[in-house]
Specification:
11 helices, MetI-like fold, mainly alpha, elongated
């Protein structure tokens, strides 16, 4: 057990070293860590409660603009709520939704894809046809339809996003498993009398997990954008919960007179997704054995 822990620690240190040598991956990781810290310590970092405001202080511009106040660095919205505080708390919603929905989708797609690709037959036919049926629907429209049935809510949002997003992981793992199970190391394990479960979990999955990790990293950004889109439409998280999409929606009627209400959360969303994509693409360059990092 101790040897396994040491091996994992050594691999993580090696991965971190390679990330530090990859400029875009390092930049993305630094920004991503900053967002995670901001989300974890939101009650400490946020200058005000996210839903507390005063109408007398509505539409205060950012501190660097004429009429702004250092007490509200990014200004206030139409009911006097501090934009910076709501952005900090909104990071919690975006990160939780992105990570949880992708984690659940990855587990489901990994299990079903490995079973389908290894055993084939009727199991593969049924799962593949069902996956193709789900792929026929545009993701955002499908999520809107599910949310219209379930209603707004955090866990309803997770369910709506994961109901279809497991298909990408399923197709990736299925294809990789079909390719890997005919290779010599799998045949050798089968000749040694290893069980199918052991072959899949101990031989095949470790050789394809890098592709799954890269896809999961990139899908987090997509899920965050989808969550923001649903919140913008008013069918995301519960009303009153600070979410970047709903913040953009709050300011869309005041773009000419109070541009910061929509622009600031939009920039926060843009920077987070950009960081995730930079990190994900860098991770792909590092983990994919077909690519070389100079």
């Amino acid at each position: 057990m101790l040897m396994r822990v040491r091996t994992v620690a050594r691999n993580l240190c090696g991965l971190l070293y390679l990330i530090c040598r990859h400029p875009s991956a390092l930049i993305g990781l630094v920004i991503l860590v900053a967002y995670v810290v901001m989300a974890l310590f939101a009650p400490v970092l946020a200058p005000y409660p996210p839903n507390t405001g005063s109408v007398r202080q509505s539409f205060l511009p950012p501190a660097w603009q004429e009429g702004g106040s250092p007490a509200h660095l990014l200004g206030t919205d139409h009911v006097g709520r501090d934009i910076l505080s709501r952005i900090i708390y909104g990071a919690r919603v975006s990160l939780w939704v992105g990570v949880l929905s992708v984690a659940i989708s990855m587990v489901v797609g990994l299990v079903l894809g490995a079973i389908s690709g290894y055993y084939r037959g009727i199991i593969d036919d049924v799962l593949s046809r069902f996956a193709e049926l789900l792929m026929a629907f545009p993701f955002l429209l499908f999520a809107i339809g599910v949310m219209a049935i379930l209603g707004p809510g955090f866990f309803n949002l997770i369910a709506a996003l994961t109901f279809k997003s497991w298909v990408e992981f399923f197709r990736l793992v299925r294809g990789e498993t079909i390719s890997e199970k005919t290779k010599e190391y799998v045949e050798a394990a089968r000749a040694q009398g290893q069980s199918n479960f052991r072959i899949v979990t101990g031989e095949i999955l470790p050789n394809i997990i890098h592709s799954v990790v890269v896809l999961a990293t990139l899908r987090v950004g997509y899920m965050i954008i989808t969550e923001a889109s649903l919140s913008f439409l008013g069918i995301g998280v519960q009303p009153g919960v600070p979410a970047w999409g709903s913040m953009v929606d709050d300011g869309r009627d005041y773009v000419r007179t109070a541009w910061w209400v929509s622009t600031m959360p939009g920039l926060a969303l843009l920077l987070l997704v950009l960081a995730i994509n930079l990190f994900g693409e860098g991770l792909r360059d590092i983990l994919d054995p077909r690519l070389k990092v100079d």
